[in-house]
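F.,

This is the one I mentioned.
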């Protein structure tokens, strides 16, 4: 087990001084829930100025998901670090005018409103293209801007079902959803990478782009192996709980002290070493039931029973020692508390503090690091409407001027 988590070992605000490679970029986002906020949070972490437009009074619906972070929503804290919150009634004449003024100062416009809402507000890509040919717009939706599913409501679990993911996840008896908002997350990641691609294109051509991402299509990309397996193999990958559907042995085994270790093999060399050093049954190397991965998968129940008997006779640490000696990959089945004290993350100083309306909080720094650059700043989680006055005052200043077509603007 790892040492207790001590925040003093982690990065302080003084350690994080880099503005980030997207410093100077202005992003305006009409966003709710997870997908769009996840995309723009990545941009904010890299130094972009992200102006988050929220509904007056209630704001982003994710603010009300729970109250677990000292009274704040865990989803909202996770997704909105480093942004500026502006309350605007975008349907009112004055709010809509201010929205259009903000878009006029933006490099990127992101929205995951209901289908057709951006067009009704006058901020659809086509409406803006003639006056702002350098603007990058990113539209995130459940099912895309066309097709018979266009106007359907799309929540994460519903898209997991539509994409077939739930049919592959869980035990043989019980299909299960993934425990995270995976459809939202993958849509947000493709929106993020799409925006970065559009920025590169603009630097080269001076022209903006319309980026469109649907949750179904984003998650569908991640379903690729399973779809190929099913289309050309004739059957879908089996639901196997925490075990791998198409590799064996590859799954969790519990020691006599109750510690669970997940192990996995990839080739015949590892199988031979596994039999010799971990199972200590070298004769199994020649057992025809286990001759090759396909055979081992076909006889998974028998093989798993053998491995489980060996694991249950030793402690978790003893099982790990054997796996290390045999050079077999493994992972400890950690709880969320144990993940929060993971020694590798502590040793690499991946935890850092950031500000919020409820005081200093701890979180992971962005997973992409830049060699030779000081760690990036982690911005404050905004209170609802915290930046309305300052952003509208900035908006009232002289408009920005282009240094060249498609280049970033300077105030």
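My design for it:
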């Amino acid at each position: 087990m790892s040492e207790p988590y001590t925040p003093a070992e982690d990065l302080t605000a003084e350690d994080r001084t880099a503005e980030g490679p997207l410093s100077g970029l202005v992003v305006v986002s009409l966003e709710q829930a997870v997908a769009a906020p996840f995309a723009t949070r990545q941009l904010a972490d890299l130094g972009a100025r992200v102006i988050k437009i929220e509904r007056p009074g209630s704001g982003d619906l994710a603010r009300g998901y729970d109250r677990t972070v000292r009274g704040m929503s865990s989803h909202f804290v996770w997704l909105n670090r480093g942004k500026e919150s502006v309350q605007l009634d975008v349907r009112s004449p004055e709010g809509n005018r201010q929205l259009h003024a903000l878009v006029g100062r933006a490099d990127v416009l992101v929205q995951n409103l209901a289908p057709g809402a951006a067009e009704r507000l006058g901020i659809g890509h086509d409406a803006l293209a003639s006056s702002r040919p350098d603007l990058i717009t990113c539209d995130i939706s459940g099912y895309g801007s066309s097709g018979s599913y266009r106007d359907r409501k799309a929540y994460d679990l519903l898209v997991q079902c539509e994409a077939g993911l739930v049919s592959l996840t869980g035990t043989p008896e019980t299909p299960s959803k993934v425990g995270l908002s995976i459809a939202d997350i993958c849509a947000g990641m493709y929106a993020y990478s799409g925006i970065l691609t559009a920025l590169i294109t603009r630097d080269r051509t001076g022209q903006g782009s319309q980026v469109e991402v649907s949750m179904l299509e984003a998650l569908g990309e991640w379903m690729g192996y399973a779809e190929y397996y099913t289309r050309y193999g004739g059957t879908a990958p089996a639901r196997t709980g925490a075990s791998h559907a198409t590799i064996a042995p590859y799954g969790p085994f519990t020691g006599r002290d109750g510690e669970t270790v997940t192990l996995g093999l990839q080739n015949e060399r590892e199988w031979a070493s596994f039999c010799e050093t971990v199972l200590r049954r070298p004769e199994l190397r020649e057992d025809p039931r286990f001759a090759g991965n396909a055979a081992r998968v076909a006889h998974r129940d028998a093989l798993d029973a053998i491995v489980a008997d060996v694991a249950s006779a030793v402690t978790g640490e003893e099982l790990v020692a054997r796996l290390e000696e045999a050079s077999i990959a493994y992972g400890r089945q950690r709880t969320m508390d144990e993940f929060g004290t993971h020694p590798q993350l502590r040793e690499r100083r991946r935890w850092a503090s950031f500000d919020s309306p409820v005081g200093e909080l701890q979180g992971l720094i962005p997973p992409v690091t830049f060699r030779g650059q000081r760690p990036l700043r982690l911005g404050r989680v905004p209170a609802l409407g915290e930046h309305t006055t300052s952003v509208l005052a900035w908006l009232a200043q002289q408009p920005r001027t282009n240094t060249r077509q498609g280049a970033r603007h300077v105030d």
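The longest strand covers residues 49-54.

Talk soon.
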